[in-house]
Design brief:
The complex is a heterodimer of chains A (268) and B (275).
Chain A: E1 20-31, E2 34-45, E3 49-53, H1 60-68, E4 75-80, E5 83-84, E6 92-95, H2 107-111, H3 113-117, H4 122-135, H5 151-164, E7 169-173, H6 181-197, E8 201-206, H7 209-215, E9 218-223, E10 228-233, H8 243-246, H9 250-263
Parallel strand pairs in A: 3-8, 3-9, 6-7, 7-8
Antiparallel strand pairs in A: 1-2, 1-4, 4-5, 9-10
Helix pairs in contact in A: 4-5, 7-9
Chain B: H1 30-50, H2 60-72, H3 75-107, H4 109-124, H5 131-138, H6 142-166, H7 170-178, H8 183-220, H9 225-235, H10 239-268
The chains are: A alpha/beta (268), B mainly alpha (275).
């Protein structure tokens, strides 16, 4: 592993054998004279949920968009399943912070939109979209328009759209930051459940320490100006039981505290 | 008529109590309100005509009678047959060219720099002054009238479309790209629907300007159609007939705009239906 500082607490031997699905090597990115990312080397293990966590300005969203192929890196490479990323690809799907739903399209068409762009026949894509609408808990809302839904429900549509194209890697850019607290918690619990049914790799950008610890197998801490990897943490939290219980778990609380102590220095 | 049919914007007469009832009261139904608005307008016109405001101002009833008379003797249908040809042709051409050129300029930098200033100048200029020029070059036929319509309608359609396309939501474009949309799909499935409210606002202004263009052309250059009918009745002091003709073209223009709005919400922005 090429991670600079591994602070894995407990069973560090459990992870290293996992084959990475996404590899980032020597990625730099500068916007004007702001150095957003410098020398990023990271591996994202297959089938795991990895969070990119850090204060604003640490380049976490930029890194995610470079992996997505939506932003070009100044230097370095990203490979997905061994192939170098030169743009968006069918093996990656993106969930947007501002949902990016078509306001003029129903929930069903929004969820099926990725398939529509790929030329999948209407009946076929709608059947698949229906399945994922139900999967994210929106059955019965297929014919509603986005403005008729709450923020949390809109992001469920965004998630269903990403799931419907059946990509191996899901890239989520602060998906819950525009969702109210109650819905965010429910959504996080649902995400843990979804991970067990969908065999996918998740890369998740967040600025919430609690959120990162709650859902992640592995947390990459980024430090700002320039954005660099400062620490990688693998919280050893058992998520097989009641998702409600995790928030009371000692490891959960300790990890949150530890990350906060590490990040404090970057907050003025 | 002009304000009666503007859908959804019918003014509630002052003093109308809003009844908070489970079922809508008589005065809360849009159709009833529209009819009421029309009747108030007609009544005000009738009273003003009877005062009379001017000897050249006919009453509403005289105008209505004259309107049916003009239909019965065939002069109004014949005039419309002549006016509608350049009007429809000019408006349809302006809509197609305007939306096409506007979209191109919104997407393509070079096009923007070459074409947009031309339309900005055209929109700022008192374009009616060009109409004699058009006659000078194209004579007094169908071409001149169609061009008069287009000169008035095109700039506003191009400029609105251009602005709408430039202001399309960036995150929707990014979404389309991330789900592997082609550039053509980006334009057809994201840019045009997202821009459609502003494009349609431009089309409504453009169509209204097209009506101005065709009537101006018929009043100023080619004495045919509706413009000729207005001039003819004015010269004979048949004021009821003159007003009936004018009111009919205003009504037609309004109905066309309402129709355009219907098309917009039906086809392009279904989520705005019933909002």
């Amino acid at each position: 592993m090429t991670i600079r500082a591994v602070a894995a607490r407990q069973e560090p031997a459990a992870m290293p054998e996992l084959e990475p699905i996404v590899s980032v090597r020597g990625v730099d990115k500068t916007y004007g004279n702001v150095e957003a990312l410098r020398g990023i080397d990271l591996d994202f293990p297959r089938g795991k949920l990895t969070s990119l966590l850090g204060p604003s300005g640490c380049g976490k969203t930029t890194l995610l968009k470079i992996v997505a192929g939506l932003v070009e890196a100044d230097a370095g490479t990203v490979t997905v399943d061994g192939r170098t990323v030169v743009g968006p690809g069918p093996e990656r799907a993106f969930v947007f912070q501002d949902f990016a739903l078509l306001p003029w399209a129903t929930v069903l068409r929004n969820v099926a939109f990725g398939l529509e762009l790929r030329g999948v026949a209407r009946s076929d894509r709608e059947a698949r979209a229906r399945r994922y609408v139900a999967e994210v808990g929106l059955a019965g809302f297929e014919d509603k328009y986005p403005h008729e839904l709450s923020g949390g429900m809109r992001q469920r549509v965004g998630l269903a759209r990403a799931l419907a194209v059946d990509a191996d890697v899901l890239l989520l850019d602060e998906p819950f930051s525009a969702v109210d607290e109650q819905n965010r918690r429910k959504f996080q619990e649902d995400l843990i459940r979804l991970r067990t049914t969908q065999n996918k790799t998740f890369i998740f950008v967040t600025h919430s320490i609690e959120e990162a610890v709650y859902i992640s197998d592995r947390i990459v801490l980024l430090s700002p100006r320039p954005g660099r990897v400062s620490q990688v943490i693998e919280p050893a939290i058992d998520r097989s039981g009641d998702p409600e219980k995790i928030r009371l778990d000692r490891h959960y609380l300790d990890t949150v505290e530890e990350i906060w102590q590490g990040l404090k220095q970057y907050v003025e | 008529m002009a304000f009666a049919s503007r859908s959804g914007e019918t003014a509630v007469p002052a003093g109308t109590a809003v009844v908070h009832d489970a079922r809508p009261g008589l005065l809360e139904r849009p159709a009833v309100l529209r009819l009421l608005s029309f009747l108030l307008f007609a009544a005000a016109w009738e009273i003003a005509g009877r005062v009379p405001v001017s000897f050249a101002f006919p009453t509403f009833l005289d105008t209505a009678t004259a309107f049916f008379g003009l239909i019965a003797d065939g002069s109004l249908p014949a005039a419309y047959l002549s006016t509608l040809q350049p009007l429809v042709l000019g408006v349809v051409l302006s809509a197609l060219i305007g939306v096409g050129v506007g979209t191109l300029c919104g997407l393509w930098r070079a096009g923007e720099f070459m074409l947009i200033p031309v339309f900005v100048v055209l929109q700022a200029a008192p374009v009616a002054a060009f109409i004699p020029l058009v006659t000078f070059i194209y004579g007094i036929g169908m071409t001149a009238k169609t061009l008069a319509v287009m000169i008035l309608a095109l700039p506003v359609i191009v400029l609105n479309t251009y602005k709408a396309v430039r202001n399309v939501h960036g995150s929707l474009l990014l979404m389309c790209r991330s789900f592997l949309g082609t550039p053509l799909q980006e334009v057809v499935k994201i840019v045009l629907p997202d821009a459609s409210p502003v494009i349609f606002a431009g089309l409504r202004l453009g169509v209204a300007a097209g009506f101005v263009g065709v009537v101006l052309a018929e009043l100023l250059i080619t004495p045919t159609g509706i413009g000729d009918l207005i001039t003819f009745h004015r010269s004979r002091a048949d004021y009821a007939e003159m007003y009936a003709t004018i009111a009919s073209i205003i009504a037609l223009s309004t109905l066309t705009l309402v129709g355009l709005q219907w098309v917009e919400t039906r086809i392009f922005r279904p989520e705005k239906r019933g909002r």
